[in-house]
Amino acid sequence: MEDNEIIQRYHSAGIKIAEKKSKSVTKITKKMNLKPKKVHRKHSDTLASIMTTSTTKIKSSSKSQELTSTGIGIARELSSLFVELDQISNSKERASRLFEWLIEPVTTKEFFSEMWEKKPAIISRAMADYHKTLFSTEEFDRILKEECVLFNVNLDVTSYFNGKKENHNIPGRAYPVVVWDFYKNGCSLRMLNPQAFSLNLWKVMSILQEFFGSMVGANIYLTPPGTQGFAPHYDDIEAFVLQLEGSKYWRIYNPRTEGEFLPQVSSVNLTEEDLGKPVLEVVLEPGDLLYFPRGFIHQASCLPTTHSLHVTISTYQKHTWGNLLKKILPAALEGALQDDVEFRQGLPLNYLEYTGVQHCEKVNAQRKKFIKKINSLIGRLQAYAGIDAAVDQKAKEFMHDCLPPVLSKDEIACSVHGAPTRWENGKPRDVLLDMKGDTEIRMLRSNIARLFSEDNRILLSYTVENSRIYHEVEPQSIEIDPELADGMEYLLCAYPEFKTIRSIPCADLEEKVSLASALFERGLVITKKPLSSMPEDQ
């Protein structure tokens, strides 16, 4: 494809969406003169917590569902599942397999047809060790000792007594002696962004985000026996509650109104007077899973005889048709105003005399004509709906939201992380890697990067340099030379297949190797086999 055709294709898509400009952009040109990119970090106190807990068990109610697993079939403990996942080369298949494990014995098809965004469901497995290696109170204690955990940023201390929720956070670092004293006095502990400290949680969340195509978050909740840490409320996320230790009594309530079903924002703390009759009451045991959609009110309390530790995995926050339309419609209207004179014609002189709330119950020819005109213009907006450009902007936001990938040993060996380069005898050795036309490469993950247009430039947004802490770094992008855009598209769309560098649609072998080398050095592609170094004199 000619350069001007590529520029026009991406520009025509990109100009339909007005977004905040990307920062920290390096350009990939034919010569691949790459320069280090500055990472802009935000203060940790701006980080967002995106989830809360909920759990549900089932009585004989059409509003919820209960399933029991005997451990037969695909069920296995997480530690053995990790071994299996590392053997799955295709990241989409790996993500699907992890989700199967999460909801076993329910099938993925059954879950999305009968439960997803519809009703709570509880999966009781009678397998106490099912989630055991995901997180533990021992790891909670280790993190407090070894990591710089801050109140308000990484940890919340709360209590709920006599219908009142209180926050007991203090300034500064959450030292173990202080945190455990709060706990002994009946306070619940909520660890925010635990994936920043826990490798297993990071791995699970980074895989699941590829399954959902949406940010995946997590909170850890540790509650003392006989207490409750949070008031009844509903959330704006799809919640998967995994019981890790102890037991917890959950009550789930239907959304109170149609407007609270699948809400865009979470509720304030509710009172008992705000609640109706629970549609689900259940005691979660280790190995159990509770799912409930956005908008379902929930509260949970610990039994008098045991503590409770659970993790809530969340997703689909503001990930709706309506949120996509928020990007499409303003841009469509802007395009219509530029191209269609009818959108720029003036309003009728006397339109205020028959429109507005004070005239809404009146029926006359002028009002009917006015409404008909509005409906006609709205219909014509469809021609200006930049759907692909809007989706690209959603994908760009997703790239920023994502956790960086956790690489397997094989992926490390075949990526820039496994390059044999080292310092030896006073100088760097094995710097030149043997990348040539027959070398086979592919993108590291299915959703590791995304092409989009901005300010007449073609940019590649990617996730490999993201932080394990939500939005700690600015969005990362590389500018792609128009002559290399076809080659970049080819590699993105070829996943999960490995392709020879020679097959990349660029002008000559030098450009093909340059593109492949630049992507390899960014950690965006892996080779089919580990690269060896070239002799120093070449």
UniProtKB/TrEMBL annotation:
Protein origin, superkingdom: Eukaryota
Keyword Transmembrane annotated: no
Cofactor requirement: Fe(2+)
UniProt-listed PROSITE patterns: JMJC (PS51184)
Pfam families: JmjC_2 (PF08007), WHD_RIOX1 (PF21233)
GO molecular function: histone H3K36me/H3K36me2 demethylase activity; histone H3K4 demethylase activity; iron ion binding; methyltransferase activity; peptidyl-histidine dioxygenase activity
Location(s) in or outside the cell: Nucleus
Record keyword Transcription regulation present: yes
Principal subcellular localization: nucleus
Biological processes per GO annotation: methylation
Family, per entry: Belongs to the ROX family. NO66 subfamily.
Protein name: Bifunctional lysine-specific demethylase and histidyl-hydroxylase
The species this protein was found in: Callorhinchus milii
